[in-house]
Design a protein that fits this description.
Elements lengths: L16 H14 L11 E2 L2 E2 L3 E3 L5 E5 L7 E5 L5 E9 L5 E13 L6 E9 L5 E6 L5 E13 L6 E9 L2 E14 L3 H4 L3
């Protein structure tokens, strides 16, 4: 007979949803941000734990010249799609809040071009089950948070988080990215 993770509780975890809720809350508290190198810091000339996509002579990803603690993405072609991405394990029917804090100075010929945050749910074979993309942002001198709330589809085994420039010219600085498990969607528990 397994017991509740709280000391002295002695409750059977299969007894009800309340105990399962309690266990999930403890697991979420252990690791709030599921992404590694969430501040996108550069070490030894490379961005650790993040993959880069769309690099070309028109698109670059590098450490900011001012500091090695900020990642800068630059694009000189309006057709460029350049991102950093990271995958992490996830299960179906879980709720997440994904946030990326960015500064940018971009111009785009189309309304859907700019700096975006993209969340993709992947199955065990790596196929994309679902995708959510935030509205693009084009100009911000201070850090602005791109945010998406996401419930994973039933067959999900991994989440892919992408942040970058989609169809725009200019630069985007990534200050941090986070993937947080939430117990329920915030809109459901919000008093307004």
């Amino acid at each position: 007979r397994e017991t509740c993770p709280a000391e002295g509780c002695g409750a059977d975890p299969s007894a009800d949803d309340g105990v399962r809720f309690f266990r999930e809350m403890i697991l979420a508290a252990r690791s709030l941000n599921r992404l590694r190198n969430a501040k996108l810091a550069w070490t030894q000339g490379r961005l650790r734990f993040w993959k880069t996509l769309g690099l070309s002579r028109h698109a670059r990803i590098a450490a900011s010249p001012d500091t090695q603690r900020v990642t800068r993405i630059t694009s000189t072609s309006p057709r460029s799609r350049v991102f950093v991405e990271q995958e992490c394990p996830a299960r179906g029917h879980r709720h997440f809040r994904v946030e990326a804090t960015v500064r940018c100075d971009l111009s785009a010929p189309a309304e859907d071009g700019g700096g975006v945050l993209c969340v993709q749910a992947l199955d065990a074979r790596g196929r994309v089950l679902d995708e959510r993309v935030t509205a693009p942002i084009r100009r911000s001198s201070a850090g602005v948070c791109l945010r998406a709330y996401y419930e994973t589809p039933k067959e999900t085994s991994r989440l892919r988080i992408r942040v970058g420039i989609d169809g725009a010219v200019g630069s985007l600085e990534l200050l941090d990215v986070s993937l947080l498990s939430i117990i329920e969607p915030e809109w459901r528990s919000h008093p307004l």
